[in-house]
Amino acid sequence: MVIASRKREGAQCGKCLNTSCANFSLSLMMFFQMKKNIFILFTFFLIAVSSCKVNYSFSGASVSPDVKTVSIQYFRNNASLAPPTISQSLTEALKDIFTSQTKLGMASQGGDLNFEGEIVGYATAPVAIQSNDQAALNRLTITVNVKFTNAKDEKQNFETTFTRFAEYSSTQSLAAVQAGLIDQINKELVQDIFNKSMINW
Fold first, then answer.
1. Stretch 86-93: mean pLDDT
2. Which fold has domain 55-199?
3. Of 180, 186, 183, which Cα lies nearest the Cα of 168?
């Protein structure tokens, strides 16, 4: 009787072992099938991304793959009160932002993207009038007219005006702070121009 009981227990253990092995094998097959499906989906995802028409740089700028170059013409100074160096500083600031935030090549003429324009406004005025009718601050305002041409997509073309300002204490003369103010305003202007042409805000 004892021997028969042990034989039945052994048979039951064998069945359990076979069942466990079968479940394990099934789980293993499902696991590898899942990995295979994930790999296939990931491959399709990479193909879809690589075939996308728009590339995104770290700055958020969107550049079509067929756009390779940008040309930035010298911005003329048509503001009577502006210092003569403002044209050069603005033009170079615009070139710098494209060099640092895109991989586009810089062309002297006929780039896929082209910028041209002029400085049309340069003025200082008092702001923040105090109770004694004296201004606590003065404001320097610079206005630039910009014409942008996209040779690959004419829908992106525009001609518009950009304005930025910076304030300084009324106790300071404009001559003493002018260079720093122009540098600050130029950085804001070229960022606006860049955003308008490349990020389409």
1. 97
2. Double Stranded RNA Binding Domain (3.30.160)
3. 180
